[in-house]
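Researcher: Sequence recovery benchmark, item below. Answer with residues only.
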């Protein structure tokens, strides 16, 4: 392998807590991002273009459905998968988002809740990047509170008929299949009363009545496709129901997977900003021909960043170890997502400040990370929703 230009950010020798396989996966992803994403990302960000040409090479490296077993998937541990998302997001949150959605929000529900036919049809093709997916949970009027969704699926003979709107859907217009969450009227076998249950459906995006259109004018995640979905009288065979789904718990289980990847990804974005600000501060001279790194106030900012990055690395490493041991709770993942995205945003702001005026230019990656992280703070459960999830966990009182 050629020498790695970016050497990582590791203040207390955390590399010694990783095994050889984990370091190899991390370094492979790091090389890939360094050689393939970093050279094009500013152009993609300016143009608002998703770098689709990277889909096949990312598939070849096993990035899609990386922690799933079988179906051609890489079968990585959760730590290895996390290290991949860390490196992806050091490149760009939008590209990490694409991989999160493909892996955690589409392949994972098919793998976990799908029939054998669904798994055999979709997972190998999605692992190879030949088929792309999107995840439709959020609606125009229901973001933090997806349980209120209006999208409905009605059973008519051997079909389901879907109607509804989904909003802010990553990869919506490039997806071949959408995982759509909808309320279905179920009959309660005991008392014959009707009740509504949230269930997941696989909707091929070329079905009549399904429309996807891109959201334009985003100042964030510009290298990622974000779309609105409209479903009007969309007929799908009953075999497109994800049979293992039932209740809001099912989409929330998918979110746990994606939130976990984001917790690592945010560390990557923070490392990119910190590394850039550190290098800059050693070169930039102001007052008495001294580098700005020699000023105490600049050192305080750099110290804050390395301190918080190190804590975030430890947090996500422990959450990953718990996940690999099958012992992770969703509130652990909420803590990692909440803390690490907040930490990364603060690092982006401090780094931007250290670069002065240069910090607002896209000759440097910081402002792009800063703007991306504003979305990352909001999606997959806002910072405040994760505050309430942790609050409910420690007090036993639900304050939503
Ligand atoms: P609540 O009554 O609390 O829960 C319903 C059932 O679900 C269980 N549960 C969970 N299970 C697994 N994982 C979790 N994280 C879970 N959280 C709750 C819960 O025990 C209950 O089970 P049961 O057996 O009793 O039925 O539901 P609620 O309606 O009060 O809502 C809870 C709340 C607010 C935490 C939830 O709605 C929430 O997380 N809201 C945030 C929505 C969100 O994160 N949306 C993300 C959309 S996808 C996206 O943004 C993709 S971005 C692209 C990218 O990833 O890069
Ligand atoms: P709201 O729920 O309206 O929240 C607005 C504000 O109110 C927030 O500050 C929130 O914290 C606060 N708030 C809400 N409720 C409470 C409460 N009870 N107590 C205190 N404060 C509260 N969704 C998908 O389904 N699939 C995707 O692929 C996807 N991709 C996305 C990509 C991007 C770029 C973005 C920006 C969003 C994406 N989303 C996706 C949607 C995302 O999950 C939602 O934006 C998010 O869940 C928040 O919902 P909202 O925007 O409607 O905000």
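Model:
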């Amino acid at each position: 392998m050629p020498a790695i230009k970016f050497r990582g950010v590791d203040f207390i020798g955390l590399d010694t807590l990783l095994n050889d396989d984990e370091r190899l996966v991390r370094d492979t992803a790091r090389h890939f991002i360094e050689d393939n994403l970093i050279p094009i990302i500013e152009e993609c960000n300016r143009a608002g273009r998703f770098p689709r040409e990277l889909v096949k090479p990312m598939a070849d490296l096993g990035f899609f459905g990386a922690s799933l077993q079988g179906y051609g998937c890489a079968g990585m541990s959760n730590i290895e998968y996390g290290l991949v998302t860390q490196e992806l997001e050091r490149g760009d949150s939008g590209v990490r988002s694409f991989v999160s959605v493909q892996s955690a929000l589409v392949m994972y529900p098919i793998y976990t809740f799908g029939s054998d036919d669904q798994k055999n049809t979709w997972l190998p093709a999605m692992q190879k990047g030949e088929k792309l997916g999107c995840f439709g949970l959020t609606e125009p009027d229901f973001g933090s509170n997806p349980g209120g969704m209006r999208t409905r699926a009605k059973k008519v003979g051997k079909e389901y008929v879907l109607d509804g709107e989904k909003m802010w859907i990553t990869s919506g217009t490039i997806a071949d299949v959408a995982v759509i969450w909808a309320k279905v009227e179920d009959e309660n076998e005991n008392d014959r009363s009707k009740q509504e249950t949230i269930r997941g459906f696989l909707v091929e995006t070329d079905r009549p009545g399904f429309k996807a259109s891109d959201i334009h004018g985003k100042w964030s995640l510009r290298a990622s496709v974000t779309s609105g979905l409209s479903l009007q009288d969309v007929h799908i065979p009953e075999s497109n129901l994800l049979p293992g789904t039932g209740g809001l718990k099912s989409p929330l289980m998918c979110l746990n997977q994606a939130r976990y990847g984001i917790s690592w990804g945010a560390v990557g974005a923070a490392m990119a900003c910190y590394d850039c600000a550190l290098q800059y501060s050693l070169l930039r001279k102001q007052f008495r021909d001294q580098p700005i790194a020699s000023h105490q106030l600049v050192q305080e900012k750099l110290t804050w960043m390395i301190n918080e990055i190190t804590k975030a690395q430890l947090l996500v490493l422990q959450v990953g170890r718990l996940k690999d041991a099958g012992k992770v709770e969703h509130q652990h993942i909420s803590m990692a997502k909440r803390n690490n995205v907040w930490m990364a945003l603060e690092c982006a702001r401090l780094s931007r400040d250290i670069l002065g005026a240069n910090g607002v230019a896209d000759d440097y990656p910081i402002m792009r990370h800063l703007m991306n992280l504003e979305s990352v703070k909001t999606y997959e459960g806002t910072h405040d929703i994760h505050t309430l999830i942790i609050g409910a966990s420690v007090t036993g009182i639900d304050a939503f």
